[in-house]
Design a protein that fits this description.
Blueprint: H1 2-29, H2 31-55, E1 58-59, E2 62-63, H3 66-104, H4 112-127, H5 137-149, H6 151-165, H7 168-184, H8 188-196, H9 202-241, H10 246-259, H11 265-288, H12 295-325, H13 330-366, H14 371-376, H15 380-383
Antiparallel strand pairs: 1-2
Helix pairs in contact: 2-3, 2-7, 2-9, 3-5, 3-7, 3-10, 3-11, 8-9, 9-10, 9-12, 9-13, 10-11, 11-12
Length: 397
């Protein structure tokens, strides 16, 4: 009898592995469509609060139908995205060109910046024997900026990605089309999942999907608020304290805000790039007007601005996003991001929090009888963002 039970158990595990392998193969084969669905889901989660606000507007006591609210929400999101791209990218391009021009003419001036760069070049050549003796930090920086922010290279990258997964027009249409239905019917995704799971698990699956959508919606909205908050603080500091000018300030602030999306590593990269760009722009303009400032003073002011912004982000924005939106502690987030960065690099760090949120909700909904889950997530109802009844000790057979 015991041998039969062992055999049945082994057969069941093999069946589970076969089903999992089939699902993975299916997802890999239709990965383009799955990417479209995931991006549409992200857009719908971000647009859900907008749709809720629009739904409160009543004309003659009646609100607009769901399909119209979904269309208006998508139009607003697309208008905001197009506005940012068309207004900010040209500013960034002009900053890069200005920096490249200033770095190229730096050798012809006698400023403290030139002396500092010359000493830095000599130190690099003497410290690293493998470096070419003709190496200059200004040439390297110019090449780096051109390769990083050159619109033609960005276009080629986008074109290669688009050719790999299909026409970019089809991709955009698919994402918008799917996002429209996700926005129009907020329970569409949960209904699809409920149709795929066994009937005895349907209620739990529906609760899990609703909790995941609720938490991820708040997370993505909070992430947008964080990007705008970081960019706004840096913009005000660069404009009124560092006095870099409107175009330079908004361009550098936008770069730092976007890079801040990468957890832990992104803010440091943004601060380094912002400091380099700010030093070159500020020092060259000051030297041109005859009011040349000390290089260390300029660096100190820029570093102080970015450091202050990072402190505000760490103690105000991130606790609001992580603790309030996805109900996770900073230690959890740090460990998850650390592991995701080791596995998938920057991409892994970007998707770590949404994936962890999904896994966390599933563990609370289906495996709360496991001791480790109960210990790691003691307050189940608060973690789900809603009052959830205590799950039974075991799943029904």
């Amino acid at each position: 009898m015991e041998n039969e039970r062992s055999t049945d158990r082994l057969a069941r595990y093999i069946m589970y592995l076969a089903v999992a392998a089939a699902i993975c193969a299916f997802c890999w084969y239709f990965r383009s469509a799955i990417v479209y669905i995931l991006l549409a889901a992200v857009i719908s989660l971000m647009g859900r609060p907008i749709k809720t606000i629009l739904g409160k507007i009543r004309i003659k006591g009646k609100s607009a139908p769901d399909w119209l609210l979904a269309i208006v929400t998508l139009v607003l999101i697309m208008a905001a995205f197009i506005g940012i791209v068309t207004q900010i990218i040209p500013v960034i391009s002009s900053i890069v060109q200005n920096v490249a021009l200033n770095m190229q003419v730096a050798d012809s001036s006698s400023s403290g910046l030139t002396e500092f760069i010359s000493k830095l070049n000599l130190w690099i050549i003497s410290t690293f024997p493998n470096v070419d003796p003709t190496f200059t930090i200004q040439d390297w920086l110019v090449d780096f900026l051109k390769k990083t922010f050159d619109l033609s290279s960005v276009t080629s990258v986008v074109g290669s990605v688009a050719s790999a997964i299909g026409s970019i027009g089809i991709a955009l249409f698919s994402i918008i089309f799917i996002g429209f239905f996700f926005l129009r019917d907020e329970h569409l995704f949960s209904n699809i999942i409920a149709a795929l799971v066994p009937e005895r698990l349907e209620k739990r699956a529906t609760q899990a999907i609703d909790s995941i959508e609720h938490l991820l919606s708040r997370y993505f909205v909070g992430l947008v608020i964080e990007v705008l908050g970081v960019a706004t603080i840096n913009f005000l500091g660069l404009l009124f304290i560092a006095k870099l000018g409107f175009s330079a300030s908004i361009g550098i602030a936008f770069i730092t805000g976007i890079l801040n999306v990468i957890p832990y590593l992104g803010p440091w990269i943004g601060a380094a790039i912002g400091t380099i760009l700010g030093v070159v722009l500020k020092y060259s303009s000051a030297a041109a007007t005859g009011t040349e400032l000390h290089l260390l003073v300029v660096i100190a002011v820029l570093v102080a601005i970015f450091l202050f912004t990072q402190l505000v982000d760490n103690f105000v924005f991130q606790p609001f996003i992580y603790s309030t939106s996805i109900k996770s502690t900073p230690l959890e987030i740090f460990i998850v991001i650390l592991m995701a960065g080791h596995i998938g690099g920057a991409i892994g760090m970007l998707v770590a929090i949404p994936v962890y949120t999904v896994v966390r909700v599933i563990a609370m909904e289906f495996f709360y009888d496991v001791k480790a889950v109960r210990r790691l997530i003691p307050d189940r109802g608060d973690s789900l963002g809603e009052e959830v009844q205590e799950a039974p000790d075991e799943l029904a057979p």
